[in-house]
Amino acid sequence: MRFGGERFLPPTVIALGVVSFLTDFASEMIYPLLPIFLAGTLGAGAVALGIVEGAAESTAALLKLVSGWLSDRVRRRKPLVVAGYALAAAVRPLIGVTSAAWQVLAIRVGDRVGKGLRTSPRDALIGDVVDPATRGRAFGFHRAADHAGALVGPLVAFALLRWAGLDLRSVFLWAAVPGVLSVVVLVAWVRERPARREVSSEPASTPERVGWRQLRGSLGLMPRRFWAYLSVLFVFTLGSSSDAFLLLRAVDVGVAPELVPLLWSALHLVKSLASTPGGILSDRYGRRGPIVAGWSVYAAVYVGFALAERPWHVWALFAVYGLFFALTEGAEKALVVDLVPAARRGAAFGWFHLAVGVGALPASVLFGVVWHVWGPLAAFGSGAGLALVAAIGLLGLVGPVGPAEPAAAPSSR
Hints:
CATH superfamily of the largest domain: MFS general substrate transporter like domains
Number of strands: 0
């Protein structure tokens, strides 16, 4: 894609964007409806939903580390990416034929196993095939396509329920169509370019059995600035609670429950439209500036939610909240590529996703406890405070890096 005289993104990045669009299209046809299905059709409650989602996301976070490390070890990304997307596409629609909550749990875990297998190798693959000057654009474009799928999926599900007269089970089964198409696009149009990657110092022989000792060995192979980056990212994540609390606050302030899906779609629309420009900013001006700006926007939005009193306040805050994602998602991933040697990208993305996943687990619990004990003002204020601490830490700990700044030397430790 030409923008301001820069080169087109590689076809592999475009194809991966289409794959993510179709995958999120399929996912979001199901998961916004999953609580209704569990409670209304299967008779399960909030505890069952919490167990399902907690087990699924924990599984994905751990597997992202393993799959990233393994893709470095075998020097191939695409087989793991294909396996992950294919597994998710195969099991996800089967929710439509379940008759018990434990079956939904098994399917959700299977789906998240697929996500865990594909995410780190996919991100590393994007880093492999793009020029350093367009890394932010590439990751921003990929996130924009992902958010576009998250926007379209619920709207299609709503249309099938409202105008086609389908029930929930039928809608879930129809989600197989975009899922299968995503795998077809992936197999046919995504290409690896190993020649772009640095030669690893490790032998390319048959990989060892994956274990904690092997994964722990990758700790010392990453630059110090990478671990500094993950430390401040973890601090930010501790203040980044589930967006379900924002929806809860929206209803408290007076947004009608039937308008909540439209509010959610509006957020994804802003994310999709702004993510590619946000990534381009990080290519032109370095990674830290957009990330710090995004985390600052996050802090301001959380303060706004704490003080909001009218529904229009919430609509405006959700629109600004979309800019936070646009400024940070592409730049955060591009910074991972900037900071580590090419032969360690898979493991680096594994640690990146693990840090985010581990931080997210207590974040919502802490937020909920603070809300319950001291109220929403304290809860949103604590999230804003952690975001600002992380922004200051990023400026002080990581140091300048990015295409517009000196790049990290692969040999630094």
